[in-house]
Design a protein that fits this description.
The chain is mainly α. The chain has five helices and no strands.
Length: about 120
C-alpha cells in the first residue's frame, strides 16, 4: 500500500517524473480499493454514491500520476488527452504507460530510477 499512499501524498503534483513501477502498482492498489468500495456500496445499498465519491476524490491524483509518468518518457502531460481518441487513444496511453522511461535526466527532472536506486 506504500505505492497508493505515496501517490496520494502528491495529490495534485503534476511536476516531476514517475516510474513504471509506481504507476502500475498504484493502478493495481487503486483497482483493489475501488472494488472494495463498490462492494461495500452495494451491500449497504447506497446506489453507487460512496463509489462515486471515491472516484471524484481519486481522479486528481490519477491524472497527476499519469502526467508524471508521461514526463518520465519525455512527453508533455497534454498527451493525457490522447485517451479521447476513440479506440486507439486508450490503447496508446496504456502503451506509453508501459514503456520504459528515459534513463537520464530530461526536461522534467532527474530519473526517478536513479533517485530510488
Amino acid at each position: 500500500m506504500n505505492y497508493y499512499t505515496d501517490v496520494l501524498k502528491k495529490y495534485a503534483d503534476f511536476s516531476g517524473r514517475a516510474r513504471r513501477q509506481e504507476y502500475w502498482m498504484f493502478f493495481l492498489c487503486n483497482l483493489a480499493v475501488a472494488i472494495v468500495v463498490a462492494i461495500i456500496d452495494a451491500v449497504i445499498g447506497a446506489n453507487m454514491i460512496i463509489y462515486g465519491l471515491y472516484v471524484l476524490a481519486i481522479i486528481v491524483p490519477c491524472i497527476a500520476l499519469t502526467v508524471r509518468r508521461l514526463h518520465d518518457l519525455g512527453k508533455s502531460g497534454w498527451w493525457c488527452f490522447i485517451v479521447f481518441i476513440p479506440l486507439v487513444g486508450g490503447i496508446w496511453l496504456i502503451v506509453l504507460a508501459a514503456t520504459e522511461g528515459q534513463p537520464g535526466p530530461n526536461q522534467y527532472g532527474p530519473s526517478p530510477k536513479a533517485v530510488h536506486a
